Amino acid sequence: MTEIDLTILFAGVVAGAAPIVMAALGETLTEKAGLINLSLDGSILLSAMAGFAAAYTTGSLVFGFMAGAMAGAMVAAVVGIFSIHLNRSQVAVGFVLTLMARDLAYFLGNPYARLHGPQVPSLPIPLLKEIPFFGPVFFNQSLPVYFSLLLIGFCWWYIYRTPAGLRLRAVGEHPKAAYARGIDPRRTQMLYTLAGGLLVGLAGATFSLSVKPGWGRPQGAEGTGWIALALVIFGGWDPIRAAAGAYLFAFLQVMGIYLQGWFPSVPAQVFQVAPFPLMIFTLLFMNLAQKERVVIWSEGRPWFRSMLKWLWGKAPTALGKPYAPE
Amino acid sequence: MEIALQNITKDYGSVRANDHVTMRVVPGSIHGLLGENGAGKSTLMKILSGYTPKTDGEIRIDRGIVEYESPAHAAGLGIGMLYQDPLDFPLLSVLENFKLGQSSSDMTALRIRLTDLCRRFGFTLDPDAPLASLTIGERQQLEILRLLEKGIRTLILDEPTTGISGTQKAALFSALKQLADEGRSVILVSHKLEDVEALCDRVTVLRGGKGAGEMDSPFDPDQLMTLMFGTRPKPPPRSAEAPGGPVLNFTSIHARGGRTGLKSCSVLIRENEVVGLAGLEGSGQGVFLRTAAGLIPPLSGEIHLKGQPMKRQNHHGFKRKGVNFLPSGRLEEGLIPGLTLAEHSALQNGGGFWVRWPGAIADAARRITNFRIKGEPNLSVESLSGGNQQRLLLSFLSENPTLLLLENPTRGLDVESANWVWEHLHRFCAKGAAIVFASSELDEILAQADRVMVFFNGAVIKDVRTQETDLRELGLAIAGRA
Ligand SMILES: Nc1ncnc2c1ncn2[C@@H]1O[C@H](COP(=O)(O)OP(=O)(O)O)[C@@H](O)[C@H]1O
Ligand SMILES: [Mg+2]
After folding, report:
1. How big is chain B by its Cα radius of gyration, in Å?
2. A181, B100: Cβ pair inside 8 Å?
3. CATH code for the domain in which residue A217 is found
4. In the 8-state DSSP scheme, what is residue B436?
């Protein structure tokens, strides 16, 4: 049995989760405004491709990340224009875009496949990296990882502590009421769809320039978009809990690799796939927390109650329902 | 501030919700806007608050003509409104609700302002509580305070007394009086005479979208009733057969649903009986019908159909016992938009592995002739007129129903279609069925029913035979004065 070095394990989790955190937070922002951007999975691939191609061509990582962000925002803009302004189904548009963006990424990215391109260097933070355990886990990382960590706190602060965040939540809750108070629901939704897309794009570029460097088919980021979408629900539309979910998912993935080493007789696929049903199970559990009967049953069972309370999360009331002005 | 609405007209497609309405509100007064359901009160006030654009007419504030772009614009001019369907944010906190739309973003200052305002009006609101934990009355209080903080000088309240407790009503009224004493104007929209009598200096009555008249306090209730409902001749009583055995028996039924739910309802309905359900829309009639149809499971109480307990039975169980339900949303709940008449026939006859189209088309054609529907078997149902949709629905009722539950069976129908529908329904009755129907037309209830139950706030507050009552008495009961 191989020894686990906890420091290495957790440093790996924090680094691997970085793009998932960005995507989940981006989607949280978008959904807080009441819109579902279902195109995440394709969007991430397209921006991973765009990011890698731009960085490879220009030799500049900054251009790479910018290209990735632009690609993500552009896909989001299509979802936004179709669903907010042309009144098309968010789900249908998002789903079609997922497939289209993915195929477009593979097609356009063909010339860049299996090339050796620039890669984000690690950037240890002096002094802080000396702290035992926490130093190597959090402060011996690269810029995108620091960004993902800061983003969690920033999103929470922005959504729950700033006037703009309050307006964002208001639109997702009750667009008509927001309109009555002088907020333009459509503009707000468009704004946060774009902002969300931007973060999803950065997530894609983080994959191709840092976490799974390079471009290819498969790139390795496939499926992450769906997980990020599930994490938003898992997180109860709360940025901190969505991020916690991302770390849990990354942890399960890393553990899968270790477990595979310990139990060679169990097929490898079991450990690769296990994180997915585990996530679904959690979602089911969260749903339970909202059933009246379960809540009544949990009275007098404190441990169960506090668990339900932690899991309780409510979707923005107007999520997925298009806003139509009078 | 003085507000004058002149010749306001509003069309929703072909529906004229307001027809050249004129109304003037004197500064510092409490002005009532009275009218039955659908009279156009909410529409008029949404126009004044900037929420809905008007089709035609003029709004003058202090003699100057104003044009609105949005509610925020109207609020800037000093007009604020509490909407009938509250426009607030249940998942946000009290303080956050208070802040939204306010120009200041200083939370600490706003918290102090809110506490001060609460003290001034004797309200107790916890700034950090989630709005969802508040009662309707408390949410109203918060909205009022929020609008005051915004600096509004005219406050519109649309049906504020629906769904709040007696004490909250008292608190609300005293706050409104206080506002008027401070020189602000209040417009109180209500269908309840008692509210208007208790509070208003002057009242404008709407009927069918038009201004029916104005009165100053003290009001004569009889005159107000006449303005609200008009003077309509009492229809001749219908000769009915004697009621037979019990069909539907409710024993202290409580159910959830709609705005009010259904509270402690005990009713016995017998064979051959036609029972009309009166009341403002959403006072519990819909929940009553859906509970009797097995669509809403009651929270407590017992339902017996023909003497048999119906515990744990769903809609299909009720259907097997001969219960038929026709909801008022013909295209939402009754028919399936996009399917043709023949496809509806095929669905109805069901069974088998494939649809027998010739049979379905023949069946649809038979219904078209028997029920005098203007349409073709392969026409989709939404292309039919309202009257023809209703005839089609009637054609799908079972041959020998025990209980017919109908929601606004003649809404939107012309007189001829409505008469035809009733003729048809009374034929079921002669065969021993019981009919229960909800209608917002008191005339229709008096003309067609043997017995009328008036719903108010989720409870039956009046249950009489139609011969023993009249329009005025029912109108008062609808307004909560049984
Ligand atoms: N948004 C809308 N679209 C179409 N018709 C409407 C709309 N709002 C109201 N109406 C119609 O306008 C009429 C007046 O409604 P409303 O102003 O709500 O009456 P009240 O408030 O007096 O009950 C009704 O016939 C109603 O069906
Ligand atoms: Mg109204």
Report:
1. 25
2. yes
3. 1.10.3470
4. E
What phi and psi, each to the nearest 5 degrees, are found at residue A188? Answer: -60, -45
Closest residue to B89, CB basis, from A163, A170, A179: A170
Q: Where are the alpha helices (DSSP H) in B49-165?
A: 71-76, 94-99, 107-121, 136-149
DSSP letter at A36 equals -
Q: Is A248 left (phi over 0), alpha (psi -120 to 50) or beta?
A: alpha
In this prediction, residue B18 carries a pLDDT of 92
Query: Rounded to a whole number, what is the largest CA-CA distance in chain A?
Result: 66
The protein residue whose alpha carbon is closest to atom 4 in ligand 1 is B12
Cβ neighbour number for residue B214 with a 10 Å cutoff: 15
In a domain, residue A180? The reply is: yes
Helices (H) and strands (E) counted in chain A, each on its own, are 15, 0
pLDDT in tens, A66-100: 999 999 999 999 999 999 988 888 889 999 999 99
Concatenate the DSSP letters of all residues of A234-264 into one string.
HTTT-HHHHHHHHHHHHHHHHHHHHHHHH-T
Structural domain boundaries, residue A211: 3-309
Inside any domain, residue A317: no
Question: Of all helices (H) and strands (E), which one includes residue B267?
Answer: strand B262-270
A321 is a domain residue: no
SS3 B140: helix
**Using CB atoms within 10 A of its CB, is residue B57 exposed (0-12), middle (13-18) or buried (19+)?**
middle
DSSP, collapsed to helix, strand or coil, labels residue B17 as strand
**Structure-block tokens of residue B388:** 């023809």
Contacts (Cβ under 8 Å, ≥6 apart) of A197: A26, A30, A37, A43, A72, A73, A74, A75, A76, A77, A79
Q: Which ligand ends up closest to the CA of B38?
A: 1
With CB atoms and an 8 Å threshold, state whether A182 touches B71. Answer: yes
Closest CB to B89: pick one of A174, A182, A314.
A174
Residue ranges in A162-274 assigned as alpha helix (H):
163-173, 175-180, 185-206, 224-234, 239-262, 268-273
Residues of chain B contacting A, Cβ within 8 Å? 46, 49, 51-53, 70-72, 75, 83, 86-92, 96, 99-101, 105
Collect all residues from A whose CB is shorter than 8 A from any CB in B: 163, 166-167, 169-170, 173-174, 176-183, 314, 316-317, 326
Number of inter-chain CB pairs under 8 A, A vs B: 57
In the structure encoding, which two tokens stand for residue B53, read together?
Answer: 């654009």
Task: Report the nearest-CA residue for atom 13 of ligand 1.
Answer: B17
Rounded to the nearest 10°, the torsion over CA B358, B364, B368, B374 is -100
Task: Say yes or no: ipTM exceeds 0.85.
Answer: no
Residues B261/B458, Cβ–Cβ less than 8 Å: yes
Q: Looking at the domain assignment, is residue A77 inside a domain?
A: yes
Pair of tokens at residue B14 = 């072909």
β partners of residue A67: none
* B11-67 per-position pLDDT tens digit: 988 778 899 999 999 999 999 999 877 788 999 999 999 999 999 999 999 888 999
- Chain B positions touching A183 (Cβ under 8 A) are 100-101
Residues of A in contact with B46 (CB under 8 A): 326
Residue B27's identity, in one-letter code, is P
pLDDT at A172 over 90: yes
Q: Does an H or E element contain B423, and which?
A: helix B415-430
Best substitution site from B5, B9, B10, B12 to test ligand 1's pocket, by max atoms within 8 Å of Cβ?
B12
Number of domains in chain A: 1
Q: For chain B (length 482 residues), average pLDDT per consecutive 10?
A: 92 86 92 85 93 92 88 91 90 93 88 93 92 88 93 92 79 92 93 86 91 87 81 49 86 87 92 91 90 91 90 86 85 79 82 77 87 84 79 84 90 72 86 90 87 93 90 85 74
